[in-house]
Amino acid sequence: MSAQREMKEKNPWHTPLTIIITVIGVIAIVALVTVAVLQNRPVPQKYKYGIVLDAGSSHTALYIYEWPAEKDNNTGRVEQKHSCKVKGKGISSYAAEPEKAGMSLTECMREAEMQVPSRRHQETPLYLGATAGMRLLNIENREASDKVFEAVEKALQGFPFSYQGARILSGQEEGAFGWVTVNYLDDRLKQGLETTGALDLGGASTQISFVPHEYDISESPSNSVAFRLYGNDYNLYTHSFLCYGKDQVLRMALAHQTRSGPVTMSDPCFHPGYSVTRNYNALYDSPCVSERKPKEAPLNFTHTGVGNFFRCQEVVKTLFNFTSCKYSRCSFNGIFQPPLQGSFGAFSAYYFVMNFLNLTDSSIPLETVKANLANYCGTPWNQIKQQHPEVKEKYLAEYCFSGTYIVTLLTEGYNFTKETFSKIKFIKEIKGSDAGWTLGYMLNLTNMIPAEAPDSPPLPHAGYVSIVTVIALLLFILFILSLRPIWPKCSKKPQIV
Ligand SMILES: O=c1[nH]cnc2c1ncn2[C@@H]1O[C@H](COP(=O)(O)OP(=O)(O)O)[C@@H](O)[C@H]1O
Ligand SMILES: [Ca+2]
């Protein structure tokens, strides 16, 4: 009993000094680890927002983007939070009643007010970019185009966002920002990977953009855009063909086939049994065709379908001019185009049309695509309507023409071959964000893609916490070991007794 007490008294672990040091040591280590964990714990995510209105020739769409608030200038990913399709037609179709162009945006803008938290409204940039519909209106009637912008501007300024202006994008910008969007969403820019080309088909214009292999930009400087993004240099080739969007190209095809001013016209690009009355003045009311208007024509003509893909292709080919090229190589209409390079993402109407025709799968060979189109175009109009009662008749009637145009544009126009055709992916969106120029436009205007690669912290959060914990444990073990000189006394004493 007394030996036991003696041992207890002499146990060095039980001296007040050791106990105090141990307790302080443990508290210090726990405090160190806690601070490390708490300090670096991700705070609840706060977001910032940006709004872009895509005022296309056929309709306007509003996109809301969001990104983590503390990372807006480099590392945070910008994603599409919401989109809203404006009811009615594109703003250029309100030339005769501009106020209605402004009013048409109200519903989607109200939706944006609900989607963006109100404390962020004032700092949220709002942009409107107009494309080929307004480019054409601007050519046709400058005053009317200015009035549309005035009305749109007035409407947008009535909302609590930070309005940054409404303008017409150049074809170059439209092509280049579409390319930025696709490659940003695919994470190719930050990682410096080989980029994907972008093919955008609208109603009034179409764009092709890609980084060529070896590229002499001096050959046609107006087709080149230089970017420095995340520390990498890109020399982008881009071209926008005004009037070669699918609605204007259809006008050109109809104009070509009615150039003699007939009363009825048989069209291989429309289904057998299709028949509508069209007005000559309405058909030729666009700068894309106005010069081709026949001198003498009746008021209307009857547009009937024949449904022959190969003959339709012949009609479409007449709309491309292959005769003159002052460069080393051209696509069509004397426009320079370097050899195609890499894979491509084809979006907007490319996707809508190919998706309807069940032809988005890249593994379908070009020959099969053509065979399917030939079969589809040859199907009687009544049967097509019965098979797709849910599809708008205007769209439904035009899928044969649009599909034929897409294949002809890609192969005859841009020179895709049966080998390179399989490198085209028909896409609507990438990782939940729509493919299109709007995201690239906003990233550029808000300087959200830095020219140089951002400095990233040497360690991610988890790595940092683990290292602090390991060091703390090592210190603790070291501390215990430092008490070692007193250990033998403690363990040997009872044996001596
Ligand atoms: O569901 C659809 N099916 C077929 N075509 C569509 C659908 N939705 C939109 N489109 C077409 O996509 C095109 C979009 O063009 P947009 O309005 O962006 O013109 P732009 O880019 O030339 O200014 C239009 O031709 C429009 O008719
Ligand atoms: Ca468009």
TrEMBL record:
The keyword ATP-binding applies. The keyword Membrane applies. ATP binds at G203, A204, S205, T206, Q207. It is a multi-pass membrane protein. One of its GO terms (molecular function) is ribonucleoside triphosphate phosphatase activity. The active site is at E174. It is found in: Membrane, Caveola; Membrane. One of its GO terms (cellular component) is caveola. Its cofactor is Ca(2+); Mg(2+). PROSITE patterns: GDA1_CD39_NTPASE. It is an enzyme of class 3 (hydrolase). Keywords: ATP-binding, Calcium, Disulfide bond, Glycoprotein, Hydrolase, Magnesium, Membrane, Nucleotide-binding, Transmembrane, Transmembrane helix. Its EC number is 3.6.1.5. GO terms for biological process: nucleoside diphosphate catabolic process. It catalyses: a ribonucleoside 5'-triphosphate + 2 H2O = a ribonucleoside 5'-phosphate + 2 phosphate + 2 H(+); UDP + H2O = UMP + phosphate + H(+); CTP + H2O = CDP + phosphate + H(+); UTP + H2O = UDP + phosphate + H(+). InterPro entries: GDA1_CD39_NTPase. The chain crosses the membrane at residues 12-38, 462-483. PANTHER family: ADENOSINE/GUANOSINE DIPHOSPHATASE (PTHR11782), ECTONUCLEOSIDE TRIPHOSPHATE DIPHOSPHOHYDROLASE 1 (PTHR11782:SF32). Belongs to the GDA1/CD39 NTPase family. Homodimer; disulfide-linked. Catalyzes the hydrolysis of both di- and triphosphate nucleotides (NDPs and NTPs) and hydrolyze NTPs to nucleotide monophosphates (NMPs) in two distinct successive phosphate-releasing steps, with NDPs as intermediates and participates in the regulation of extracellular levels of nucleotides. By hydrolyzing proinflammatory ATP and platelet-activating ADP to AMP, it blocks platelet aggregation and supports blood flow. This is Ectonucleoside triphosphate diphosphohydrolase 1. It comes from Poecilia formosa (Amazon molly). The lineage of its organism: Eukaryota, Metazoa, Chordata, Craniata, Vertebrata.
